[in-house]
Specification:
alpha/beta; Aldehyde Dehydrogenase, Chain A, domain 2; 2 domains; 15 helices; 21 strands; binds NADP nicotinamide-adenine-dinucleotide phosphate; binds magnesium ion
Length: 488
């Protein structure tokens, strides 16, 4: 158990320096595998701190956008090298702070390195088109202008990858940045920020202000000099961000929840489908926006699939993500655990049948943490709460379908549309699914939670603001198109 004296306190990073918050108030970040361990303290900043960061970012923006893309890219290559050299330390911090297993945390940190390198290279790629003018003496082309100061608001579930997949494109396209990471994962974010700090980007180009969503997050929404806001988190907060940004004419981008289905057709490879359902649904304790949460299975193979799934779920080793052999860690926080348990209760109340799991997990040292058993419900109706609302925990709902058409119709019958997958060996079923599934990511014979950094990422319906992140799609949010007409 940590004592007060060996807990490190992390500062804000503003205008190239680490500075204490103006209130001097700090908050301990708790290890969800052992609630007695404080991973680190972070600043509970005030609007004054945010204003200082915005002043610094505004001051820095002219010179930063004046650099060439290649010059900005060189800074990102440096950040990538530093992050890579600290991969194990940062991954361990992530596991301690939000609970995902160490191998997953390492994979995520390596992803962060790859994203930085991808966007570093993006500084050398094309940014516009030449368009023939009707005036034969003129040259007409498009170019891209950065937004200016960008506010980045991130969740705790991918505390390295999400901040980086927002900050790296913001920076390469010439914006300056203020990030407010989720409090639940602010120590990990501070360690990522240390990599940026040591790469010596010019003062004010990147800034981090930690603190509560209602103060610093809301401050980003309201600040007149923040020209764009990129947000990932819950749909409730996302809507507030969108409304606030719209009210003052700032550009915004929202990536929010999911209620992602996997469809298992009667001709599917069932072992593959079981493996992908477990991986997509229960890795990271179900706390991925792309996690599988509804499993829509054809009548003819329902019983066989169910039996295989339950047998495999029973084998899952739950425990501290730093221990070798552990497959699933705790929920990221006590409030997350309570949310998951209340959805499980709701599922039982509404008549779904519990096949496996359903309880808090308290074996041995796990009694000090926020663990829940991997849980599968049978006989779920798509209108039940557990089939409609995002649970963000290791809970799978099995739903029966009579046909492929009905499966797709059930899959679409939710407010979200982030990711979806189908398991089938029939090409027509694949094509129907690709055409008719309302989701930003549609995946065939592969789990719902796979994302590649070089491809566009985002949702349909209420999963996003209909924008896309990652890959070259990121340029659409982080720049404005300028149409240029030149006549000699
Ligand atoms: P959240 O509660 O919405 O928080 C996200 C961020 O918003 C945090 O930094 C939070 O600060 C901040 N915030 C809270 N209230 C705010 C306010 N009034 N104004 C401005 N900012 C505010 O979400 P979460 O619980 O951290 O993350 C889980 C959610 O993220 C899930 O719904 C999941 O689906 C979604 N998610 C989506 C994607 C995607 O790409 N689609 C990826 C990952 C996660 P605090 O730290 O102070 O709470
Ligand atoms: Mg924590």
């Amino acid at each position: 158990m940590s004592t007060k004296t060996d807990v490190k306190t992390f500062f804000n990073f503003i205008n190239g320096s680490w500075v204490e918050g103006s209130s001097s108030e700090v908050k301990g970040s708790i290890n969800p595998a052992n609630k007695n361990e404080v991973v680190g303290n972070v600043q509970m900043s005030t609007i004054e701190d945010l204003n200082n960061a915005v002043d610094a970012a505004s001051e820095a923006k002219q010179a930063w956008k004046g650099l060439s893309g290649a010059e900005r890219g060189n800074y990102l290559f440096k950040v990538a090298d530093i992050l890579e050299s600290r991969l194990d330390d940062i991954a361990e911090t992530m596991t301690r702070e939000m609970g995902k297993t160490f191998p997953e945390a390492k994979g995520e940190t390596a992803r962060g390195v790859a994203i930085l390198r991808y966007y570093a290279g993006e500084g050398m790629r094309k940014v516009g088109d030449v368009i023939p003018s009707t005036d034969s003496d003129a040259l007409m082309f498009t170019s891209r202008a950065p937004l200016g100061v960008v506010g980045v608001i991130t969740p705790w579930n991918f505390p390295v990858a999400i901040p980086i997949w927002k900050m790296a494109p913001a920076l390469i396209y010439g914006n300056t940045v203020i990030i407010k990471p989720a409090q639940e994962a602010a120590v990990t974010a501070a360690k990522v920020m240390e990599c940026f700090a040591e790469a010596n980007l010019p003062n004010g180009v990147v800034n981090m202000v930690t603190g509560s969503g209602s103060v610093i997050g809301q401050g980003i929404i309201d600040h007149p000099e923040i020209n764009g806001i990129t947000f990932t988190g819950s749909d409730q907060v996302g809507k507030q961000v969108g409304q606030g940004a719209l009210a003052r004419g700032a550009k915004y981008q929202l990536e929010m929840g999911g209620k992602n289905p996997v469809i298992v057709a009667e001709d599917a490879d069932l072992d593959l489908a079981v493996e992908a359902t477990i991986s997509g649904g229960l890795r990271s304790t179900g706390q991925k926006c792309t996690a599988t949460s509804r499993v829509i299975v054809h009548n003819d193979v329902y019983e066989e699939f169910k039996e295989k799934l339950v047998a495999k779920v029973k084998e899952i080793k739950v425990g501290n993500g730093l221990e070798e052999g552990v497959w699933m860690g705790p929920c990221a926080s006590e409030s997350q655990l309570n949310t998951v348990l209340s959805y499980i209760e709701k599922g039982k109340e509404e008549g779904a049948q519990l096949l496996v799991g359903g309880n808090r997990y308290v074996e041995g040292e796990c009694s000090n943490g926020f663990y829940v058993e991997p849980t599968v419900f049978d006989a779920v109706d798509n209108q039940m709460t557990i089939a409609q609302e995002e649970i963000f925990g290791p809970v799978l709902a099995l739903i029966k379908a009579e046909s492929n058409e009905e499966a797709i119709q059930l899959a679409n019958d939710v407010k979200f549309g982030l990711s979806a997958s189908i398991f089938t060996t029939n090409i027509q079923k694949m094509l129907d699914f690709i055409d008719d599934m309302d989701a930003g990511l549609v995946r065939v014979n592969s789990e719902s939670a796979g994302v590649e950094l070089q491809a566009p990422f985002g949702g349909m319906k209420q999963s996003s603001s209909h924008s896309r992140e990652q890959g070259q799609a990121a340029i659409e949010f982080f720049t404005s198109i300028k149409t240029v007409f030149v006549k000699g």
